[in-house]
Amino acid sequence: xxxxxxxxxxxxxxxxxxxxxxxxxxxxxxxxxxxxxxxxxxxxxxxxxxxxxxxxxxxxxxxxxxxxxxxxxxxxxxxxxxxxxxxxxxxxxxxxxxxxxxxxxxxxxxxxxxxxxxxxxxxxxxxxxxxxxxxxxxxxxxxxxxxxxxxxxxxxxxxxxxxxxxxxxxxxxxxxxxxxxxxxxxxxxxxxxxxxxxxxxxxxxxxxxxxxxxxxxxxxxxxxxxxxxxxxxxxxxxxxxxxxxxxxxxxxxxxxxxxxxxxxxxxxxxxxxxxxxxxxxxxxxxxx
Amino acid sequence: xxxxxxxxxxxxxxxxxxxxxxxxxxxxxxxxxxxxxxxxxxxxxxxxxxxxxxxxxxxxxxxxxxxxxxxxxxxxxxxxxxxxxxxxxxxxxxxxxxxxxxxxxxxxxxxxxxxxxxxxxxxxxxxxxxxxxxxxxxxxxxxxxxxxxxxxxxxxxxxxxxxxxxxxxxxxxxxxxxxxxxxxxxxxxxxxxxxxxxxxxxxxxxxxxxxxxxxxxxxxxxxxxxxxxxxxxxxxxxxxxxxxxxxxxxxxxxxxxxxxxxxxxxxxxxxxxxxxxxxxxxxxxxxxxxxxxxxxxxxxxxxxxxxxxxxxxxxxxxxxxxxxxxxxxxxxxxxxx
Lengths: 288, 337
Prior knowledge:
The structure holds 2 protein chains of 2 kinds.
Chain A: H1 2-31, H2 38-56, H3 60-83, H4 91-113, E1 118-119, E2 128-131, E3 134-137, H5 138-160, H6 162-172, H7 174-179, H8 184-210, E4 212-213, H9 218-232, H10 237-257, H11 263-277
Antiparallel strand pairs in A: 1-4, 2-3
Helix pairs in contact in A: 1-5, 1-6, 1-8, 1-9, 1-10, 2-3, 2-4, 2-8, 2-9, 3-4, 3-8, 5-6, 5-8, 6-8, 9-10, 9-11, 10-11
Chain B: H1 2-11, H2 13-30, H3 34-59, H4 67-82, H5 88-110, H6 115-135, H7 137-140, E1 146-147, E2 153-154, E3 157-158, H8 162-184, H9 187-197, H10 199-204, H11 209-235, E4 237-238, H12 245-258, H13 265-279, H14 286-301, H15 317-336
Antiparallel strand pairs in B: 1-4, 2-3
């Protein structure tokens, strides 16, 4: 029974990871570069929600939008500083740039927002539904719901709109996309903004889930997103969703069996094992 | 300018090296302050760590971003065994060998992987090691860390002050740079570089890629372990927070800023990075902001690193041309005003 409850927790947490991973997959797919700034973008998203709650009161929908917009704006800055010049250069250059940028944002947030932990308002606390003998909190359902709605929206956007088609074209082949008249520069920027925005929303959800925000919360979150994406297969959006959920479940079942200090060990262990057994990820194409 | 310096060095190799050695030995007699000396000792630690990472990243082109994990193994090996009354001098070697075995284990899964996958495995591995060290309280002291690590004896002196400890570290730095130099100019080093340039071509020329990649990881891990082991008696206290991913990124930035794939690069990088962060100590938290800006501007202006030549492949022409255009634009605007 305890394990079943942990499974529910795992699915809820995993759905947040899944959203982060989807954002990361969009960025990786469109830009084609790995970023270490993503965690800090998540952190920025959750901080924007924190200040939104202070200034405008507890409105979750608008807080999510605020998180999306803030993260997308930070995404533009990151794009200008770390990607735009280095799209054709050796990959590690932009990678180091994103490491520097992540360091910058983290310390910037520490200086501006303060290094202490800040509390987020609780939503629908104490309410839950009982399924048999498992309790599922409304908040968990809400988080899972938001993630599912956003992923569906993203899928529709990518499949059915003109911009989505451009994004898919750029992520498949930049040169060919340029040949058929797509403005690759703008499209990459937009794709990056969408990915970062999704990360920001995930950051808001993360802040609500843990009831707290912290300038250093980004590091581990970004790594989890990265792991989840690689787990599903680089740049594959559906794979990223599955990978994120899987990491959440494995983590929570793992700490149910051992101690809670080892939470992150399970995530990385799963990742290493998958990479050794099936290097292209669960849903990745061969030959990458 | 770097090329001119290189020419100058090539002509008067022995004299320059002797002068540098003499200067390095004379240094502690010229500096009284213990705090300044401990900064210098720290620079030397990072020379070893950055050089060992450079062996992996710069010479065989594998992308290791979890170097802090190797340092952790070295540090903890020495600290744990030193509390069981093993002689500290022997432990420097033991820590190196243990870490090199761990490096071998890490290299096994990574033989099949390249680029970002490899980076991710090293990163995950480094984080796993840190978390295990944090949670295995009976062996590693958990969050309390390990205290009271004994300092080694050196010529009948207990090397507890930075002035005395400097010589021990200097000895290992020279050993590290010397062995690296020898290995890189041997058959093994050439095999590494051929793998870096093109592993398919290397394979077709009969280079056993798996073997040399493993050796590469083991060699880099060995010196990382020795570097980590050297740190423990100097600080007399270690805990797992000293070996976080940020620490790994820190070492990586030193290699990149100095110039990877050159022997002198990590030395330059370690000196520059540590001195800058020390100089801006008065700025407290903003110090790391300055460090971050330094890393980013380095990538914008000189991606091949300070010691890398402008003829390097990385300093490619598209970047250079772009930069020229940027400055021309800047000056044009000024003229209009």
